[in-house]
């Protein structure tokens, strides 16, 4: 599937609303374009025609999809047009240097199976993959020499992708490629990179290799490149859509999307899994599965008491799911609690079935405590909510009454 399939899968809901880019700034209704503008417009039309032939989709549909991408990222309609032109316009694709450290190659594997877009579309249409230890056709010192030649020729222009954690103990001797430690390879490649992306939990914060006792001193790229901005795309494996969306933003604007304090793209990791989980209403109502296969588990109740780490894990798994199948293909969707694979200090650190720390306020204060809600009937929960509403109404009425009384006393004093 092509780039456009990625747009449909990732941003379908926004696109379905009929969002369109604001092209009024490109050519206002009453304006008469100059000759250079006419040539530019003709060139752009030609670029879009190439897109139609390459991706098998109409110009109109392509613009609508790009507008949907922009809207879903919180950008304007003009940004959607910019994305469309970035993909359509023939330009030099950004070169990519891809390093592998301590990992299972899961991030690359998930990209290999991506259809949003397919890996060949990513490589041939959006980026120029200069070096990738898993996908390189060649091997040995020749490939290493080509990597360094590309880095030299593209100083300050290439995108560095790091996959896997980086061992730092004993000068990094526990992971070597072509006689060079992963630690040295990372420092060398990062020096002149235009942008750095840590793909997967291992590269983002250490992942599995960094779990105790961590004899190799494994750490994520941000822990090694402390003086540089590193975009982190955590997950085990990470969702390829989060990586591809970040790449599309970089291709369009030549810069990185807005990031949170841990370097994660806000558009993908801005909310807790718990906030968007479709089992959340059961949490609020106090309906929990307590054993695999019990009645609550069969009915799709909340998995909090089985150790679900959704309340303390930031990711968009409930929205994207996995494998492009829909229908709940992700851990919680198939009845297993989230174990926080994308959250540093949670995945591979906390016991699998231990209770999560609820990071945000969830149910109203008038609800019973979580540990006392399992046997609570819906009637008593509803009564608690109603009581809270009544208390709120009384409090509000009291405030308004006091305010009016104060106003009247003030008027009386003025008249006196």
From TrEMBL:
Gene3D superfamilies to which the protein is assigned, alphabetical: Cytochrome-c3 hydrogenase, C-terminal domain, NADH:ubiquinone oxidoreductase-like, 20kDa subunit
EC number: 1.12.99.6
Catalytic activity: H2 + A = AH2
UniProtKB keywords: 3Fe-4S, 4Fe-4S, Iron, Iron-sulfur, Metal-binding, Oxidoreductase, Signal
Localisation per UniProt entry: Cell envelope
Residues reported in the UniProt entry to bind [4Fe-4S] cluster 1: 104, 202, 236
GO BP annotation list: anaerobic respiration
Residue span(s) of domain Cytochrome-c3 hydrogenase C-terminal: 269-349
InterPro entries tied to this protein: Cytochrome-c3_hydrogenase_C, NADH_UbQ_OxRdtase-like_20kDa, NiFe-Hase_small_C_sf, NiFe_Hase_small_N_sf, NiFe_hydrogenase_ssu, TAT_signal, TAT_signal_bac_arc
Signal peptide: 1-16
Ranges for domain NADH:ubiquinone oxidoreductase-like 20kDa subunit: 104-249
GO molecular function: 3 iron, 4 sulfur cluster binding; 4 iron, 4 sulfur cluster binding; electron transfer activity; ferredoxin hydrogenase activity; hydrogenase (acceptor) activity; metal ion binding
Any one of the GO CC terms: cell envelope
Pfam families: NiFe_hyd_SSU_C (PF14720), Oxidored_q6 (PF01058)
Cofactor: [3Fe-4S] cluster; [4Fe-4S] cluster
UniProt: [4Fe-4S] cluster 2 binding residues: 274, 277, 302, 308
Protein residues bound to [3Fe-4S] cluster: 317, 338, 341
NCBIfam families the record matches: hydA, TAT_signal_seq
Family: Belongs to the [NiFe]/[NiFeSe] hydrogenase small subunit family.
Quaternary structure and interacting proteins, as annotated: Heterodimer of a large and a small subunit.
Name the UniProt record assigns to this protein: hydrogenase (acceptor)
Organism this protein belongs to: Magnetofaba australis IT-1
